Amino acid sequence: MLNRRQILAALGTTALATLAPTALFAATSIKPDESSALLVIDVQNCFLPGGSLAVKEGEQVVPVINKISKAFANVVMTQDWHTPGHVSFASVHSGKKPFETVDLPYGKQVLWPDHCVQGTDGASLSKDLSIPHAELIIRKGFHRDVDSYSAFLEADGKTSTGLAGYLKGRKIKRVFVAGLATDFCVAWTALDARKAGFEVYVVEDACRGIDTQGSLAKAWADMAKAGVKRIQSGDIAVNA
């Protein structure tokens, strides 16, 4: 456990007022190795400015992700990839509006504006992402009757995307999660990664949240409880 002197040294000039009890402040930089992977979650046009489900400041994650990706030999990206008329769209539920909820066979579902429909420009990854060495793109949410926030499991909690098997086959032991949105797809990915046995870090400044009805605070609390480590991009050693 870090003592007070080590924490202060790691923070440098960062104001103490920004400390969060759930955060991890590394005394030395984290150096990703061959057993580490960066998961870049849903940095797609629909979630960026002008998109149908734009996340506030979502575009700001792109340069941060581009920078930290250089530290990783292993990078996986994800895309929401919904059918037209997907069950998660408010437009298919009579009388319902975006951000209201409905009860579905697998549990409570937040309803969203139509977004990331297969083959549309909105579903495309941001053109400003620059990660040529990314090895895999996982598409999720393509089953019409079930949503899929997590990169590992769909919202029913049992339908696998195959990502856990892929990572374990590559002998990956720890994953770093970045992207959109912190309180939904990032958090669900981080929690399922922990359930799958990985050491998990969420890179806070490489994410942005939606924060509907307290969802952001709850997501961080749930992740902390599960043992997810909360870090900043500056905690990762990136070669110049």
Automatic annotation (TrEMBL):
Which EC main class describes this enzyme? hydrolase
Protein's pathway: Cofactor biosynthesis; nicotinate biosynthesis; nicotinate from nicotinamide: step 1/1
Keyword hit for Signal: yes
- Judging by the UniProt lineage, the source's domain of life is Bacteria
Which is a Pfam family this sequence falls into?
Isochorismatase
Q: Where is the signal peptide?
A: 1-26
Positions of the Isochorismatase-like domain: 36-229
CDD domains listed in its UniProt record? nicotinamidase (cd01011)
Concerning its family, UniProt says: Belongs to the isochorismatase family.
The entry's protein name is: Nicotinamidase
**Native species:** Bradyrhizobium nitroreducens
